[in-house]
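Standup notes, protein team

Yesterday: finished cleaning the Acinetobacter wuhouensis set.
Today: Metal-dependent hydrolase structure.
Blockers: none.

Input for Metal-dependent hydrolase:
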Amino acid sequence: MQNFTDQFLQYWAQFSAELNIPKNQSESLFSILSFSYSQNYYHTHQHIIECLELFHQIKDRLEDPIAIELAIWFHDVVYNPQASDNEEQSAKLMQKHCVGILKKEKLEKVAQWIIATKKHQPSKDHDLNYLLDIDLAILGSSPQRFAEYEQQIQQEYSWVEPEMYKIKRAEVLKHFYQMKPLYQTEYFRDLLEEHAKRNLSLIG
């Protein structure tokens, strides 16, 4: 697999400079993020970079791009495939280690956005809908990247008995296939909806 470490560092350096995060805190946060995203198969540096690439395409459409970018950095920082509270734990970790970066009420908003990536329910919050769409953009990726993604998810759940995994994974993808629309923003519907439905229709 391609090494995404350098890109991950470059994006973090850019974000840290934009927020003027103190050097020691920035280095500590980067260590946490880099280590956490090196422990998985899909929820990795690659996933965060892909999210950030999409974020930079649409940041001018956002009301609070800084908060959205912070949510992207931390939304999967805690990921244990055998746990059911990863998003909540990711939000708590973000709030604990990002004190002083943004005001307390803004960190609370980011925490709620991170938790919202658990269920991907449509929101009345303009920015949150963009975050949710970015997180699901992988479903509308190229057939090659989607196949790689499916392999990565299967590796993360290698502890599940194969037949049971196949049944449960099909249920998850069927849920996304049946969402109308899958993407909540016009931008991502136009960009990815058709590709995503085609990818999802091939899984059974």
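Follow-up from PR in the comments: The first helix runs from residue 5 to 19.
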